[in-house]
User: What shape does this take?
Amino acid sequence: SDAFNRDVLAKLPGTTAIGHVRYSTAGSSELRNAQPFLFEYAGGSVSIAHNGNLVNANELRAELEAQGSIFQTSSDTEVIVHLMAKARQPDIVGKLMAALARVRGAYSLVLLATDGQHSKMIGVRDPNGFRPLVIGRLKDAYVLSSETCSFDLIEADLLREVEPGEIVVIEKGGMTSHRLPDTADRTFCVFEHVYFARPDSLVNGKSVYRAREKMGMRLAQEAPVEADVVIPVPDSVLPAAVGYGRGRVIPLEL
Assistant: This one.
């Protein structure tokens, strides 16, 4: 609400949007690395927002630069777009699949793309499912988000998670699902439950608050200490401190 008031929204045409609220985790935190990125290429235009880190971004970037690619940012995300632009597949989903076949690491992506006269919103998770991505439904639209708590704010219904290795394509006719050819064991990042996610979100179908509370109770069993009070630092550990205090029957103080 601080960034998008009614006057600002009135100046934004269109019916589809993507956004990004995370700091740059690869490359420096500066304006040119602020996402979503927007790129124009021979196949149309594509805008992309990325949560995660690509572990082979540097070697792919060096390869692409040797072939003549010119990068506008220092973010690992831009590698994906350059790979898409070079792909020979005729449609945007094929280009995305070809690009993602080359990258390794963690990625949950949301893209807006124009493919000729048609526009699409695309969501994809890496085959391991490191980072979260969920699908919601409004009365007249689909929504994608890293966290379910954002659906509560806009009164959207949670449909399901985007599965690891799944690409969902949302366009005028509805939503379709595609699969990346790569398969991998599901290795979700535990730090979502420990720190990243908001306590009022559901992650892997489980309440983040309850998961942290249970971790605190388990810690009280495995590492009991004599103490007068339990104090949570930082604030995200409050549910775990509640669980630890209950497990040791020690009062909680802020």
